[in-house]
Amino acid sequence: MLDVPGFRATLAAALLAFVSAAATADVVTMKDGRRLEGILLHDEDGVVRFDAKVSNTRATLNLPRAEIENIEKRPVPDSFFDAPPAEARRSDPKNFKDSRGVYLEVPIIGAIGKEVQAEGVSRVLAYAKRHGIPHVVFTIDSAGGSIDEAKEIYGLLRQYRESVQYHAVVRRCEGEALAVGVWCRPILLLPGGVISGLKSKAQADSDADEEDIVRSRMAERIISDTQAMGPAAGIIRALVRPGETLSAWKDESGTLQLGEEPPVNASEVILRVGKGDVLTLTREMGLGLGMIRFEGSAKDVGAVLHVKEWAPESTYGGDTMTRVADDVAKKAAAKQATQDAKVKRVMSRRSDVEAHIRDSFQKAAEWDPKKETYSTYAEHYDLGYGWTGGWTSNKWTPESQRKWASRSEACMSYLLEAVKGLRAMKKLDPEAVKLGLDPLYQPGEIDRILMDLQARYTYLQKNREKTQE
């Protein structure tokens, strides 16, 4: 084979382009100009059921036959719904003395969902994994953006966490940009830099329920996925789902402590945030919490990690993020891009809300007070000799009464969480059907479940102070 510089990379790119072009599929062209690719499943009774790829997300859509211009049947390869393969490497591995110090710099600059796209992050991480690039340095300067796009980025970072080490140089990491920051070790906060929590974007009460569910699940998922413990877990909760007061301080021995309020003898109060307020960490607070003092850029991260041969693999990270953002911007005015974004958002939201409903029902069942056993005074009178002295009282002991009340309150709180989810689903499910997705609930089913939950809640509330069977 010819050993010409760049020849192999050019050949690989050409093969990649050929494979991508060969991966054809059935094509549905709508009368409004939209074009969908996938697998035709059903075409009867005025409805076309189509397994489609929508913004790199797989979705089964029910399309009105009257709104379809044309259907083209083509061969569909088994790998059609798979993620596209990573691009050929830009640099020659022989140029690096030690591959353990090779990194890619990836800008998370601008709005999530606009300048920062999940597709760009996906391509960079796939590239890093394929070519054995061990480090990715995210330079973060973002005020947040789309929570659904952020969730997708979060999922990608979770997917590749065993193959790539993530680091962050932060100017501004606010709101949804936290989806990147929470995975990075270390987080290097620049002078004047800030890390700030999610701000509410709900426009109505139903939106607030939906948003609270998404945030709640996100916070617990982050803590579980990243194995955050102690102060880190508390700060993550405060950043993602404000709802409790949080303070951080150092005690008399200089040990970092977290709680609702610092004691009067605290030697240093680092931060204090009230219930419902958005937590904002400044550089000074970060240093007080134990962050590393840093004033450099991606090229200086190696020194923090104690990696001697620290070198960028190429400019692939920044180039790819820019290219993908430009491609999305060009399509933004098209109806197809708008429709795809709606489908993607509703699918994501509905999945989270349905999981919240399911988990709430499960927890309510676990705390059902009827599933517990309660001791009575009569049992105490028996003393184990078979004689009660004539007492036959079935009244519960004080401990049993407290147990019933405590379990009733817990069960009621989980029923309310289920109600919150069902109210959000009552809005989301019809939206999904309008977009062509299958409903999760039959007409009227949510209202029937809500009525049943109301009856159960009323019973628990009425019998909270129950003293005997």
Features:
six-stranded mixed sheet; flat; SH3 type barrels; 469 residues; alpha/beta; 2-enoyl-CoA Hydratase, Chain A, domain 1; five-stranded antiparallel sheet; 14 strands
Describe the structure.
With 469 residues, the chain is of the alpha/beta class. Helix content is 42%, strand content 20%. The protein has three domains: 7-72, SH3 type barrels; 93-242 and 278-331, 2-enoyl-CoA Hydratase, Chain A, domain 1 (Alpha-Beta Complex); 335-462, no CATH class. The protein has helices at residues 7-22, 118-130, 147-159, 178-181, 205-226, 231-240, 283-288, 301-305, 316-331, 335-366, 377-382, 398-434, 445-462, and strands at 26-30, 35-44, 47-54, 57-64, 68-72, 102-109, 135-142, 165-174, 187-196, 246-250, 256-259, 268-273, 280-282, 311-312. A six-stranded mixed β-sheet has the order 13-9-8-7-6-14. It has a five-stranded antiparallel β-sheet with strand order 4-3-2-1-5. Helix 10 (335-366) runs antiparallel to helix 12 (398-434).
